[in-house]
């Protein structure tokens, strides 16, 4: 059996799941893996490999980590490998057209139902905007971001129990399976890619620090979606006594009050009013403290809070 020779490009766990699927399929030979450079993470600034690099090293594959592909020696080396095609999944860099044109095909596994949510944070925006479903699109790579013709799509529901982390896990599996199911038909010409409707395109740029802050004037549903759409990263926050107060998890609750006002406090719960309705805080992190359950917060730093106090000020 003749194997299709691939270069794989990706960075986070989402990409690693797709890469593992390709490596388990005898139809493909991965010649090299390209991922973002190792970065310092956490308070201790420890240098950490990307999940994709970890998988590549486990399979003894060559790994390339250029800070920027365009004009790099790494790109020249990749073009000399003789790959048939490129598969990307949440790589984090634009691919130069010179590289794309050097292979027979280049496809991307994108975590949205294109043409909606082009860009780097499609899952975040889908949850924040209250979408009922999310999905994955396999598309051809072109010079314009996430604008290539679509090879295949698959969707999955977003439930109230979901957040960015759970949806990444679900969509990684959806993307892996969709790629492996459709790539043979695409390569044989049996699957004809369809162009995107540009008039329906929306965008999901990377989340900015300003977007992380909670707007208590919004409805309880919108605030709830905002918190889920920032968890487990970059994490939604508000102010408490003028200091940043992170809110990791919350639930919808009954109640009314002024936006940001504490309307109920017990030993185990803290309810905050929104522009319409309320939410119950579940997991928080006060400034200078570790992440904690709301019960631990109320037994410690939060003991001085009273009904009528405000968050966001």
UniProtKB/TrEMBL annotation:
Reaction catalysed by this enzyme: L-methionyl-tRNA(fMet) + (6R)-10-formyltetrahydrofolate = N-formyl-L-methionyl-tRNA(fMet) + (6S)-5,6,7,8-tetrahydrofolate + H(+)
Keywords assigned: Protein biosynthesis, Transferase
Domain of life where this protein originates: Bacteria
Annotated stretches, region: Disordered: 189-211
Bias-annotated ranges (Polar residues): 198-209
UniProt-listed Enzyme Commission number(s): 2.1.2.9
Membrane-spanning parts: none
Positions that bind (6S)-5,6,7,8-tetrahydrofolate: 112-115
Record-linked Pfam families: Formyl_trans_C, Formyl_trans_N
UniProt domain Formyl transferase N-terminal: residue ranges: 6-182
GO terms under cellular component: cytosol
GO MF annotation terms: methionyl-tRNA formyltransferase activity
SUPFAM superfamilies named among the record's database cross-references: FMT C-terminal domain-like, Formyltransferase
Residue stretches in coiled coil: none
Residue ranges constituting the Formyl transferase C-terminal domain according to the UniProt record: 206-301
HAMAP family: Formyl_trans (MF_00182)
PANTHER family, per the entry: METHIONYL-TRNA FORMYLTRANSFERASE (PTHR11138), METHIONYL-TRNA FORMYLTRANSFERASE, MITOCHONDRIAL (PTHR11138:SF5)
Role according to the record: Attaches a formyl group to the free amino group of methionyl-tRNA(fMet). The formyl group appears to play a dual role in the initiator identity of N-formylmethionyl-tRNA by promoting its recognition by IF2 and preventing the misappropriation of this tRNA by the elongation apparatus.
UniProt name for this protein: Methionyl-tRNA formyltransferase
Organism listed in the record: Streptococcus henryi
Gene name of the encoded protein: fmt
């Amino acid at each position: 059996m003749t194997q299709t020779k691939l270069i794989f490009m990706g960075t986070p766990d989402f990409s690693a799941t797709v890469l593992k699927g390709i490596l388990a399929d005898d139809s493909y030979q991965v010649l090299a893996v390209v991922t973002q450079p190792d970065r310092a993470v956490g308070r201790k600034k420890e240098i950490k490999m990307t999940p994709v690099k970890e998988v590549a090293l486990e399979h003894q594959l060559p790994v390339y980590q250029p800070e920027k592909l365009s004009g790099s020696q790494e790109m020249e080396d990749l073009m000399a490998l003789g790959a048939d095609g490129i598969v990307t999944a949440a790589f984090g860099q634009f691919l130069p057209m010179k590289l794309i044109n050097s292979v027979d095909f280049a496809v991307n596994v994108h975590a949205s139902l294109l043409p909606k949510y082009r860009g780097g944070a499609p899952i975040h925006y889908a949850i924040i905007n209250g979408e009922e479903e999310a999905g994955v699109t396999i598309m051809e790579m072109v010079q314009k971001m996430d604008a290539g013709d679509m090879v295949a799509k698959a969707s999955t529901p977003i439930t109230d129990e979901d957040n960015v982390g759970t949806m990444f896990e679900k969509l990684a599996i959806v993307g892996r399976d969709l790629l492996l199911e459709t790539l043979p038909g695409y390569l044989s010409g049996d699957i004809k890619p369809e162009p995107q409707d540009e008039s329906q395109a929306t965008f999901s740029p990377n989340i900015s620090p300003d977007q992380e802050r909670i707007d208590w004037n919004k409805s309880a549903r919108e605030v709830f979606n905002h918190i889920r759409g920032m968890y487990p990263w970059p994490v939604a926050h508000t102010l408490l006594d003028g200091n940043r107060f992170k809110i990791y998890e919350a639930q919808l609750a009954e109640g009314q009050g002024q936006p940001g006002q504490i309307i109920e406090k017990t030993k185990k719960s803290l309810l905050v009013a929104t522009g319409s309705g309320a939410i119950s805080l579940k997991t928080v992190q006060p400034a200078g403290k570790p992440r904690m359950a709301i019960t631990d917060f109320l037994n410690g730093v939060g003991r001085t809070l009273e009904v009528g106090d405000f968050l966001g000020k």
